[in-house]
Amino acid sequence: MKIEASLSDNAVLEELGERLARTRLERNLSQERVANEAGVSKATIERLEAGEPVKSTSLIRVLRSLGRLEALDQLLPEPLPSPLERVRLQGRQRRRAGYSRGGQRTEEKGPWRWGDEPAPDETE
Q: Architecture of 9-75 per CATH?
């Protein structure tokens, strides 16, 4: 069943529970093992798979133990910056390499040294 806005909350929870149960079974994991890995009780897994409400932290733990936590990022992606924020951020991007005060490019100076080391052309 496709999860749509027209479904009731209970119907969405039931579909979510069925999908989690199928995912668990595809990975050949018992409810007890998922519960142990997620740090929740087996009863929590049973309630979740039956479409009953559970704490959001329990859902996050179960998704993590099933390797599906990243799916939440697709569910609710991070908002894009507003056009004004993009303009503000774009002004801070580096566009070219800089020069040292002597007019030389920094990469032409040679390897970086601490300052207390003798220069390569100095002999002791």
A: Orthogonal Bundle (1.10)
Give the pLDDT score at 14: 93
Helices (H), the chain: 9-26, 31-38, 42-49, 56-65, 71-75, 83-90
Q: Where are the domains of the chain?
A: 9-75
Nearest to residue 39, comparing CAs of 22, 57, 51?
Answer: 57
Q: Three-state DSSP class for 36?
A: helix
pLDDT attached to residue 85: 77
**Helices 42-49 and 56-65: angle between axes, nearest 10 degrees:** 100
Supply the pTM of this predicted model. Answer: 0.62
Q: Which residue has the tokens 């924020």?
A: 85
Let me know: does 35 contact 42? Beta carbons within 8 Å.
yes
